[in-house]
Amino acid sequence: MFSIEPDTSGNLILSGRLDASQCAQAQAVFDKMSNQVSVDCSKLEYISSAGLGVLLKTQKRLLSANGKLRLTGVNPHIRDIFQYSGFDLIVEIELLPD
Length: 98
Fold this sequence. Notes:
This protein has about 100 residues and is of the alpha/beta class. The chain has helices at about 25-30, 50-65, 75-85, and strands at about 1-5, 10-20, 35-45, 70-75, 90-95. Helices cover about 35% and strands about 35% of the residues.
């Protein structure tokens, strides 16, 4: 199961598994975001290459408008996926506090 919801400050909270079957839903939400977008990933259990594509497309769009994407609360498993894919070099990532 996957969900993407705004929090009280307008940031997004991802939870569950972001895979190919959920990408259209996620992209529709991300496409509405502008400027600085902060995404809480503390409840994200899994992200596929298709999910990474959604984040990359969003980052490129935001950068072209002088904004950026920031991922917070990233757990060690998701961090490894970002590092193996080189994604940590493209997007600002804040790890889950110990």
